[in-house]
Amino acid sequence: MSAESPPGIPPALAALIEDFARADRMARVELLVDYADRYEEAPLSIATRPYPVRNRVTHCESQVYVFPEDLPGGTVKYHFAVDNPQGLSARAWAVILDETLSGQPLEQVAGVPGDAVFQVFGREVSMGRGEGLIGMLALVQRLARERLHERKPR
Predict the structure, then answer these.
(1) Would you say residue 6 lies in a domain?
(2) What is the pTM of this model?
(3) Residue 73: inside a domain, yes or no?
(4) pLDDT digits over 56-87, tens only?
(5) What CATH number does the domain containing 126 carry?
């Protein structure tokens, strides 16, 4: 793992961060478009409209919702609904979060640093877009922490 990838985060996310660190600006954009093209909305078996406010990402211009699905073994699959058809960054980040955090230990998911957004998208991401992307990660982390708390012996 390079010095740019924080320790203790899920290996798939660390590897992705390393890939993005090696990419120049144009390659980064192409990678993000490829991720966005793979986006699939949360299945109806997981979430139906109107989506609950509890699942809405705050400060996100693209109206993003996150839905957890508990998996065997105590991990979670994260599903996303991005209501803005122009929300390329949100769709790309949704795919990245799903592919790198779903099924991972909840402690690792909860511990992903917020600057992972900038390690993937670059420092030139706008403030508004950055807040929304950080908000997506924060909601995923909140859902992971809630499950960790629920599972603690009382």
Answers:
(1) no
(2) 0.92
(3) yes
(4) 999 898 999 999 999 999 999 999 999 999 99
(5) 3.90.1010.10
User: Structural domain tally of the chain?
Assistant: 1
Select from 153, 134, 152, 1 the least CA-distant residue to 61. Answer: 134
**Distance, CA of 125 to CA of 39 (rounded, Å):** 20
Mean pLDDT (whole number) for 90-107: 97
Burial class of residue 37, CB neighbours in 10 A (0-12, 13-18, 19+): exposed
Whether residue 5 is contained in a domain is answered as no
- Asked whether residue 44 is assigned to any structural domain, the reply reads yes
Give the tokens for residue 73.
């073994």
List, for residues 1-34, the tens digit of each pLDDT value. Answer: 444 444 578 999 999 999 999 999 999 999 999 9
